[in-house]
Amino acid sequence: MDLYLGIDFGTSGARGAVIDEFGSLLFEARYPFSMPQKRLDEAFVHSEWRKALFALLEQISGELRRNIRAIAINGTSATVLLCDAVGEPVDAPLFYNDARGAVMLERLRGVAPENHTVLSATSSLVKLLWMSQLPSFSKARYLLHQADWMAFLLHGQLGISDYHNALKLGYDVLELKYPEWLENLQIPIQLPKVLTPGTPIAELKAEIAAKFGLPSSCLVCAGTTDSIAAFLASGAKHPGEAVTSLGSTLALKLLSRTRVEDSRYGIYSHRLGDLWLTGGASNTGGGVLRHFFSNSELVKLSREIDPRKTSSLDYYPLLKPGERFPSGDPNLLPRLEPRPNNDVEFLHGLLEAIARIEARGYELLVILGADKLSRVYTAGGGAANEAWTAIRGKYLEVNVVRSGNTEAAYGTALLAMRGLVF
After folding, report:
1. How far apart are CA 189 and CA 132, in angstroms?
2. For the Carbohydrate kinase FGGY C-terminal domain, which residue ranges apply (predicted)?
3. Tens of pLDDT, residues 120-150
4. Looking at 204-259, which runs of residues are DSSP E strands?
5. Secondary structure E strands in 232-370
């Protein structure tokens, strides 16, 4: 029996999913990070990522490992790092929401097309330009995304990415090449070779196959981003269907026949077969909720919320200044006051605020030309919150259902099994 492994690197931990050739889920593995990624120092970040990858492999039984034919990995979008000639990181990675590169936007506006996806304070290209000023840049030979580097640890070939991760680097997903304007920047570093997500790259390194009892013929495939993996897992297939990922952040993906791009609002479109997956990611989401409440408190307090009532609290829940979508405003301030003494009221206000941001995001996508929203699938940890689902349905005015599978690792396993066949 042929099996397939998908690995998801999120913000709070890594997960793995093993499926068979019919798409049935056989095994799930989890590895929680020891602390939030943004607080890890350089050496610990890389050792933690490596440790997580190999710990996930170890959790899978030997019987299952012997039958794994392909592996794919997803990572957080626009999390990037610089590596030397042998693939060792030369500095700390910059995470998906790191906006220090905003100081490079003026330079980039003079080169990139108006309102291009890279014209965002958190794009991969802006991060690369910012990192090019660091002393460590002289040691760098490759720019890799998180998913690229994790896959490299398995197959050993440097400088390979996929066109989902490479979108925010400036790769032209319509023409399937780097545009001339990007080449004109003459960045003295090797940009990754870009493949279609799910494309086999190479077999596992011999030492990895031997150590974990994996077939020497097991293929490592080009990966994707975490939110696209969640979309692939959801079961959404038709234009107008969308997936909201309620993880640490809030990611929206709407399947459309029309490509929508506008950096002013943090909107971009990923290629998905003959269709487009248009959307964006807000800095609000579960990370804000977990800042104030434990998981058990969220479950308990949510049960006491009456979703039919509208909160009077007017919040914009962020942990720090800066928003990516639906307004690309790196200076947007969090709005979390006043805080009522009643925690149920406070949580109700937070959930409604995030629901309003979600509804505004989909509304904006449609205004700019995407297909009309018809159904929203929900993935991520927030998918199980019934009160939140009811609140979101009230604002979205369409059916809100839980994804067929809520784990991005499952979607990535599907990618390893069938490539990007939609």
Report:
1. 9
2. 272-418
3. 899 999 999 999 999 999 999 999 999 999 9
4. 219-221, 224-225, 241-246, 250-256
5. 241-246, 250-256, 268-272, 275-282
